[in-house]
Amino acid sequence: xxxxxxxxxxxxxxxxxxxxxxxxxxxxxxxxxxxxxxxxxxxxxxxxxxxxxxxxxxxxxxxxxxxxxxxxxxxxxxxxxxxxxxxxxxxxxxxxxxxxxxxxxxxxxxxxxxxxxxxxxxxxxxxxxxxxxxxxxxxxxxxxxxxxxxxxxxxxxxxxxxxxxxxxxxxxxxxxxxxxxxxxxxxxxxxxxxxxxxxxxxxxxxxxxxxxxxxxxxxxxxxxxxxxxxxxxxxxxxxxxxxxxxxxxxxxxxxxxxxxxxxxxxxxxxxxxxxxxxxxxxxxxxxxxxxxxxxxxxxxxxxxxxxxxxxxxxxxx
Length: 317
Prior knowledge:
Blueprint lengths: L1 H17 L4 E2 H7 L1 H4 L4 H17 L5 E4 L5 E4 L14 H13 L3 H16 L26 H10 L3 E5 L8 E13 L2 E8 L4 E6 L3 E7 L14 H8 L6 E8 L4 H6 L2 E6 L2 E8 L3 H6 L5 E5 L1 H16 L1
Antiparallel strand pairs: 1-3, 2-3, 4-5, 4-8, 5-6, 6-7, 9-11, 9-12, 10-11
Helix pairs in contact: 1-4, 5-6
């Protein structure tokens, strides 16, 4: 069984690497004997999808292309699957070793371990201990959102996706059609940057606000992926990190600890309320709405009006 699958994967990889044009599922089935022996179309489709995912896990870059007739084809370009010789010194090997220890999820941990094994096979010296010089460090990046893994794979494979997203000022989530570019963690939360097809603009999405499943879509990206995607800078500006002015708010005692951490001044008002002065930047109104009745904006008037408008929109549903 294992030998048969290895042979099938090898034949599929050779077909995808040897073609100059995308091959459809039908053409691949007619070219590989194991696929011809599949009992039904459903059996073949399941086998092909598993094989394709296995090859991608092994590092083969497989492109999905839709032709003019709307038929989906697959190929693996040689220039995308050719690596230069890998040479790493001890410090570089240590950095990669620490990166491999970061992920807590089993799937990502396995991939990181496999990557280190591939580097060993490519010439990483066996006597280099990636963890030895930094044994006291135990880096961890938690990932609790179910949307992380499908979005990570979509960013890697350059596949458009659709998901339901709940904005801060909306009672119900709405569908978003996105070309995903990059994922980044900031202040304990994961964010996706990409091209929002419906709005025709770059957008950043917080993964914890994605509801339901992330669904893949066929076809290519409609806009080029930027060389540098500034996820963290964008989110920081929304959170008021680059603010050059201040806002005054009333905050219920014992609530809103993230706001208290940002406050430049805090004054007790009594009757269960405090007055805070916090940095005021783009997107602060959306953030304040998340705290609901625990926050009252005192000034400036424009911020108070924006928060009231968002609360009314939520109330209307």
